[in-house]
Amino acid sequence: MRPPICAVCHDRFATKEGGLVRFADYEPLPERVVGHPKGLEWFCGKHHAAAEALSHLATTEALRRIRRKPTARR
Ligand SMILES: [Zn+2]
Q: With 60 as the cut, is the pLDDT of residue 73 above it?
């Protein structure tokens, strides 16, 4: 498992502020294999909600859409 670094902005964050999102191309690691599974990414507090909303997509497509979105839409 990778440390919590946001897949969108590459900021390292405290895990209570963000979290992991499992995408459509998620593949669990085989038993006893150490590493980071495909399709599972960390997101900071700013990007976590957007990532969850796109979790029905494959990772690369979801990331592309989040990066394309203008930030701070409130
Ligand atoms: Zn982020």
A: no
